[in-house]
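Lab notebook, design round three. We kept the backbone fixed and only want residue identities now. Task for the bench partner: fill in a sequence for the structure below.
Input C-alpha cells:
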C-alpha cells in the first residue's frame, strides 16, 4: 500500500536504480527506467503514499531492500538516480567509479546540463548502494528539484507528469555514456 518495488533484469552488467522513487524524490523512477531501457537492469523503490513519502527515505548507506541488494551484487556497475533540493537546474555527480563518472559528466555537459562534483552527496562510502556492486564502485547522480521540474510537463508531485524533451535529452546522454563505457571508449568522452 505504501510502496512498490520494480525490478527488471538487463544484459549489460550495469544497473540503473532509483531507491527514492515515486513520491519520495519525484521523477527519479521515471528517469532511471528510461535510462535503463531494455539493455540495462532497472530497480526502483517507489513511495506510493498520498503524502509524507519522505518517511520511506533510507539513506544510500542503509538501503537494504533484499531485491535491490541481490541485483546490485550481480551488477558490474551501478548508476543511482536521486533527487535533491534547490531551484537551480543542476546535477551533482558522485560515486567511486571515477572513469564512468567522468564519462557521464562529459555527456551530460555536452547535452547542455550543468554538472558539478557533489558538494553534499559524494557517494563515495563503500556501503553506499551504488558502490556495493562487484567492482565496488558506482555513480550517484543527484538532480535538483529545479532540474526535475524542467523534465516534466505537469506538476512534479502529480501522477500526471509527462516526460518532455529535457527528460529525453538527459536520459539519452546518460545512455551514451553507459554505451561508451561498455565499448571501452571511455577515454574518448566528448569535451
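Proposed sequence:
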Amino acid at each position: 500500500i505504501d510502496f512498490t518495488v520494480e525490478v527488471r533484469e538487463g544484459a549489460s552488467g550495469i544497473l540503473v536504480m532509483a531507491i527514492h522513487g515515486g513520491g519520495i524524490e519525484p521523477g527519479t523512477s521515471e528517469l532511471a527506467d528510461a535510462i535503463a531501457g531494455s539493455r540495462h537492469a532497472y530497480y526502483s523503490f517507489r513511495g506510493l503514499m498520498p503524502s509524507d513519502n519522505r518517511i520511506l527515505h533510507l539513506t544510500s548507506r542503509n538501503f537494504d531492500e533484499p531485491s535491490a541488494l541481490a541485483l546490485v551484487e550481480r551488477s558490474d556497475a551501478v548508476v543511482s538516480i536521486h533527487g535533491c533540493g534547490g531551484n537551480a537546474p543542476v546535477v551533482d555527480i558522485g560515486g567511486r567509479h571515477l572513469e564512468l563518472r567522468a564519462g557521464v559528466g562529459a555527456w551530460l555537459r555536452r547535452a547542455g546540463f550543468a554538472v558539478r562534483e557533489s558538494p553534499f552527496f559524494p557517494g563515495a562510502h563503500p556501503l553506499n548502494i551504488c558502490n556495493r556492486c562487484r567492482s565496488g564502485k558506482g555513480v550517484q547522480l543527484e538532480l535538483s528539484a529545479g532540474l526535475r521540474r524542467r523534465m516534466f510537463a505537469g506538476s512534479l508531485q502529480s501522477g500526471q507528469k509527462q516526460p518532455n524533451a529535457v527528460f529525453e535529452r538527459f536520459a539519452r546522454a546518460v545512455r551514451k555514456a553507459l554505451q561508451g563505457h561498455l565499448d571501452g571508449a571511455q577515454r574518448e568522452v566528448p569535451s
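Keep this in mind before ordering anything: The beta strands are 3-8, 14-22, 41-47, 77-84, 90-94, 114-117, 139-144, 152-153, 162-163.
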